[in-house]
Amino acid sequence: MLLGKGRTLRFLCAIALLAVHKGATEQSEDDSIRMLSTSSNLNVIQGSTVLLPCNVLNLDRKVRIWKHLPSRILFSGTISVSRDAKIHLVNGSSLRIDDITPQYAGEYVCLISHHHFLNVTHRIQVLVSPSIEQEPPNGKAVVRKGNQATITCNVSGIPKPVVTWTHEHNGVQSPQLPSGVRQVLGGAQLQIASVDVHHAGVYRCTADNDVGEPAGAVFSFTVLYAPELTVKPEWIHGGEGATVEFMCTCHSAPPSHITWVKGDPKQDTPLQANDRIKLREKLTVPTTTESWLKLTRLRKEDLGSYACVAKNQVGQSFKMVELSGLAEPVQLRGDETGETSFLLTWTAKSYSPIIEYQLKIRRHKSDDEWTDVMIPVSEEGLKQSMFFSHSYNVTGLEPGTRYEVVLQAHNDYGWNRPSETLIFSAGSPPVTEPVEDSTEPTGLPLYDIELDITDPTYLIQGSSRIFHSYPLMYICFLIGLWIL
């Protein structure tokens, strides 16, 4: 009995010794397995190929397991689990990804079977060069003046691209956007609350994230608007046999059709070119048209108003000019001065003879009434041609007092526009002050061209004394004319 128990004990001890030996052997084998590759963070440009190493020492019968975290198993040993055509196992260890795209970004881990503490992790960020989707897709924006407008560069890329804009107008490019243009959506969209002419041009959007080449988009921005006109000159003096020319500049989009009309601009009969009427038109830039009206060998019936009429699909407008037989405004100047006097000289251009002049004078910057001095023209003066020169010596001035004076000329067609105001004082050089309104200066009447110059009251001679008293009838007559 004791012998049997001894044999059993020796057997169990032998088994225990074998188990200990086997465990020690396995522990020794586990201690010899080593991960040689190290973890990495990789930035990879889209479309590239990336190789992820998993080199292990003393792998023996263990296998590598490749995962795309969080849970996608790619390979178990050499067996492909994902069946992804872009992912390959190289030399039974490294993972290769071809033509990489953003969906392959993330963490890739290589584990050793039964020894998960032995692993290597590779983190991949896929870099994508910038791209742009523009709105409108054709890059052409056509907007009426006063309306709202937006143009958009929908950008994509990793990392997120930075968007910049430039504006080009009439061939001049600027990094500054026009006033009234607002950038929103991180700069990707331009908004205009009320479109104006200066917003037209070419807008360029550029997206850049330092990956590959920057992306760009071009927008052609067209502003449609009705004709806007300027004419030069607005008034011109003419007479029989003379040649005159008017110029009309039209800004509009689309370009306008321009016609010239005599008299009422609403009438449907535009002027036609002939041997005396010359018409010329020129498109200088896409939105500017210039038109010229030239009248030669003038006749009396040619005098009057003319209109430059422009029309496009947005609207129509006109601008009036005047061809007048009235003398041009007098060029008034002072040549000599005395202690109490001042000599005025002037030249008036007129195709018909100057009949007389009217001088209006008062203290400078005062509320005094204008004093009128009628200056007749001698027989010799009537014989002058085109340029009529005259002079008048103003006397009775108060020393040290400044005066202001304007002059008008009268020919067969009536009184012309007043001259610029001449400011002077006895013994000092004169100063010329422009008329505030060339058609109706403050406080100065423009006489009716049908004024009856045979009226005996009207023909009262002027005086060299500036505060000379005029008959009551003459003053009343002038006031009546001014009211008319």
Automatic annotation (TrEMBL):
Domain called Ig-like: residue spans: 31-121, 130-220, 227-324
UniProt-listed CDD domains: FN3, Ig
Signal peptide (residue range): 1-25
Domain of life: Eukaryota
A Gene Ontology molecular function term of the record: axon guidance receptor activity
InterPro entries the UniProt entry points to: Cell_Adh-Cytoskel_Orgn, FN3_dom, FN3_sf, Ig-like_dom, Ig-like_dom_sf, Ig-like_fold, Ig_I-set, Ig_sub
Pfam families: fn3, I-set, Ig_3
Presence of the UniProt keyword Secreted in the record: no
Any Gene Ontology biological process: homophilic cell adhesion via plasma membrane adhesion molecules
Name of the protein described by the UniProt record: Hemicentin-1 like protein
Natural source organism: Argiope bruennichi (Wasp spider)
